[in-house]
Amino acid sequence: MTEAAAKFDEMHKPDGSIRPAYGEYCNWHEEQQSDFLRRKHFEAEGSFRRTGITFNVYGEDEAEERLIPFDMVPRIIDAGEWRRLTRGIEQRVRALNAFMYDLYHRQEIIRAGRVPERLFRNNDAWLPNMVGFTPPGGVYTHIVGIDLVRTGPDEWYVLEDNARTPSGVSYMLENRETMMSMFPELFTRVGVEPVSDYPRRLAKSLAACAPSVTQGKPVVAVLTPGIFNSAYFEHAFLADQMGAELVEGTDLRVIDGRVGMRTTRGFKPVDVIYRRVDDDYLDPLTFNADSVLGIPGIMDVYRAGGVTIANAPGTGVCDDKAIYSFMPEIVEFYTGEKPLLPNVQTWRCSEADSLAYVLDHLADLVVKEVHGSGGYGMLIGPTSSRRELADFRKKLEANPTNYIAQPTLALSTCPIFTKKGLAPRHVDLRPFVLVSPDNIDITAGGLTRVAMKKGSLVVNSSQGGGTKDTWVLKD
């Protein structure tokens, strides 16, 4: 499906009438004065600046920090639609966790010929240090973000899996808080499922994964690389909201087989570390010897059962876009069911036939790096110049295993607020999932990212995208 194909408008039916999910919101919107809405639009921007909700942009000479645009028109999903989505999300997350366990143990899926061994043998995200080890509670992916796109009334697709360190939940929470403070009357007219209890549920879920050596109430800490990290606001926000400690590597030390946190009364054992530090920097004795962000010896403590690391080291394999292309097989192998949420059609450029097809249709496809993220290193064929297509063709031919390709989907649109009124823009959705030994908890909503530029398909904050509040309606 190409960008030129018909787009699904989530607010309007083809005849221009309003879809039921948006009915009460549109009634409210029609009652408001345009001056009032414009004033609220600027109030929201000022609020985000005061709160410090910014995104660091690397590799540019201009301002290091940018404000993430917030759009005050909510994205609305009805209760029935959300129930269907959650069933598919839960199925996929169960399969991802089972896949992780299998990859680091008997590798039955490879023995069965459902996934080729080469996909992880040469994959930097697969960690030999995790072989034969089972994390506390058997949970690998404690926090998961599943990126979804919509192309029709009942047509949702998984665009990517984020099983390593999914970000963006702080924006989901701040978007809702901003909306409730600006338009409290809206939430009395429209029944919307809450998201504000996410930090409490996150803390509860992490505590449930504490190691067996824990005594009393588990101590949870958020490990951050520091204030210069692009997601530092989120690290500090979540630690504060959870009532957890925000720590850097220098605040922690291995003492007597435990990880201790520096306090005014000496070092206190930490049971669960929600780490926002990449695998390679987690332990300089095991991984990158030059790292100053991690804790020397933490992997030995982890493997001995002295601490829980969330998400588990080595889960980055699931973020690999080549692995993603095998997710239908992975879901069926571990659940015995067909996937409830399909993948986007994907060509693996490592395969000769697929590469030939991609090279022949480069101008119609989206091509992504296998390990890429944030909208970087990708080609959107229909919007690329001849020069860009030619340059990318050389990259593909030089290193085809580094790329996958997908159709240029006609992503659904939701309205945003503009000076001229409401205007449609393309969106995706990242629901957040919490996994504990006995429960999978999916927050009713998630982060809707929106391409603020007309016609753009790139929703990433680093590429100029914005966010909006996501409403799941109550029954």
From TrEMBL:
- Domain of life, per UniProt, equals Bacteria
**Where would I find the Circularly permuted ATP-grasp type domain in this sequence?**
74-451
Signal peptide from the UniProt entry: none
Q: Check the record and name the Pfam families matching this protein.
A: CP_ATPgrasp_2
Return the PANTHER family for the record: BLR5612 PROTEIN, SLL1039 PROTEIN
Return the protein name: Circularly permuted type 2 ATP-grasp protein
